[in-house]
Amino acid sequence: MDNKIAIITGGSRGLGANAALKLAAKGVDLILTYKRDADAANAVVSRANELGVKAVALPLDAGRISSFTAFTAQVKEALEVQWGRKQFDFLVNNAGMGVHAGFAETTEGQFDELMNVHLKGVYFLTQALLPLLSDGGRILNVSSGLARFALPGYSAYAAMKGAVEVLTRYLAKELGPRGISVNVLAPGAIETDFGGGVVRDNQEVNAFVASQTALGRVGRPDDIGDVIAALLSDECRWVNGQRIEASGGMFL
Predict the structure, then answer these.
(1) Beta-strand (E) ranges in 49-180?
(2) Does residue 126 lie in a domain region?
């Protein structure tokens, strides 16, 4: 039986890379996207190959909607050349970037950049790839705990994530006739290089987050990668249209 194939945007580093390797360990083949760092993406591909699966890395600027038609053609070619298939099984909309700025100081440029990557990009990339997604497949959008709790400086970022959570329910409803389930995962604060690595590298921030988390520590990439792999497993086939928060119990 052929392996399932997952497309993970932003799969060259951080949570995307971790999720890719967790899926690879479960026998899922991969198409990873990266924006600039081809070497990092190829390193993830090599590690996935060592785990016994096929993987390829493709460049993608998740905020440049005009590039999605060409990217979809690249995906189609990769599926045919590498797998001899016309469709893939899982789409993980993970690519992202952060802007930390107070509401009064947030510029229109910052707002537009966040919107293009986190909302408009997710909307129209999913739309572009939909003909290549197998019936019975899965879509998992990545949100943030910041869509539930509020921390100053993230109003624009969190607003985009909140919109993606609403979009997820609509996708679940509209794609249900094809047997495609759609969920959204909201990580809490995680020790990665996201936002300049502030949660990972700033001891004061790290300690604050831990103090506000029921399980008493900051999240690690493995905590999220494992949840992504679980949500795409057959055991979670009946989970649909849901927001799942993986935060260790932040701000309860």
Answers:
(1) 55-59, 88-93, 133-142
(2) yes
Report which of 65, 54, 15, 56 is spatially closest to residue 33, judged by C-alpha positions. 56
Dist. CA 155–CA 45, nearest whole Å: 35
Q: Which positions are annotated as active-site residues?
A: 157
109: in domain: yes
Q: What share of the chain is helix, strand, coil (3-state, %, to 5)?
A: 50, 20, 30
Residue 119 carries which DSSP code?
I
Domain that holds residue 234: 5-246
Question: ∠97-101-104 over CA atoms, to 5°?
Answer: 140
Instruction: Give the global pTM.
Output: 0.96
In eight-state DSSP terms, residue 246 is E
Q: Is residue 187 part of a domain?
A: yes
Tokens of 121: 């990009």
How many domains would you assign to the chain? Answer: 1
Instruction: Please tell me the distance from the alpha carbon of residue 132 to that of residue 137, in angstroms, as a whole number.
Output: 10
Specify the residue for token string 């094809």: 178
pLDDT in single tens digits along all 252 residues of the chain: 689 999 999 999 999 999 999 999 999 999 999 999 999 999 999 999 999 999 999 999 999 999 999 999 999 999 999 999 999 999 999 999 989 999 999 999 999 999 999 999 999 999 999 999 999 999 999 999 999 999 999 999 999 999 999 999 999 999 999 999 999 999 999 887 766 666 776 788 888 889 999 999 999 999 999 999 999 999 999 999 999 999 999 999
Residue 252 inside a domain? The answer is no
CATH assignment at residue 75? 3.40.50.720
Per the CB < 8 A criterion, the answer to whether 185 and 236 are in contact is no
Give the position of tokens 């935060």: 247
